[in-house]
Design goal:
Length: 190
């Protein structure tokens, strides 16, 4: 019972872990980027046509009275502007405070006219009222459709359940994970 609790706790913590991101010139101290459905593993899978909540946490060194977002997904030399709502100052008390950590969540709409099963970068830039880039980060992403999203989710749940069974022989677990690796490769084929 305790072992199951630990595995469940690990899954919850992993789901809330910041994604691996590259800071591309933030004036503020960017601390974490959380994209729903993504964890520490790269790439972050984004589903075409999906609306995905994205949360950032940062510490501001100076006051900004207004924040505007510019979000682009770059795949195969195509730069697709991505609609994002709401603007940060609609959810965060502006001006941005300098004496506390600030956090805001926006919802990104993934364009449907992008290539499927391709890797690229999500670039998220936030500018203040004088046009200064206060936040900028990139995350490696890979596009998928809703069927692939469904299969990946259920495969991850199954893997976690199998791993939590202490009575299974290691050879069974190895064979299972090798077969799921093959299945995941089949999922990403066109």
């Amino acid at each position: 019972m305790f072992f199951t609790f630990l595995v469940f706790h690990f899954v919850i913590v992993a789901a809330r872990a910041s994604v691996v991101f590259e800071d591309c010139g933030s004036a503020y101290d960017l601390q974490t980027v959380n994209i729903q459905g993504c964890g520490m593993r790269m790439p972050c899978f984004v589903t075409l046509g999906d609306r995905i909540p994205v949360n950032v946490r940062f510490h501001a060194d100076f006051v900004s009275r207004q924040l505007d977002q510019d979000v682009i997904i770059q795949i195969n030399f195509v730069h697709a502007r991505t609609p994002v709502t709401p603007e940060p100052c609609e959810t965060v008390m502006c001006p941005v405070r300098t004496d506390a950590e600030t956090s805001f969540t926006s919802v990104m709409s993934v364009p449907t006219n992008m290539a499927l099963n391709q890797r690229g970068y999500l670039q998220w830039r936030v500018y203040n009222e004088v046009g200064q880039r206060v936040l900028c980060y990139q995350v490696m992403v890979q596009t998928q459709n809703f069927v692939q999203k469904f299969l990946r989710h259920h495969l991850a749940v199954l893997e976690a359940k199998i791993e939590a069974l202490p009575f299974l022989r290691p050879s069974f677990k190895t064979n299972f994970f090798n077969s799921t690796l093959l299945l995941s490769k089949l999922i990403t084929k066109k």
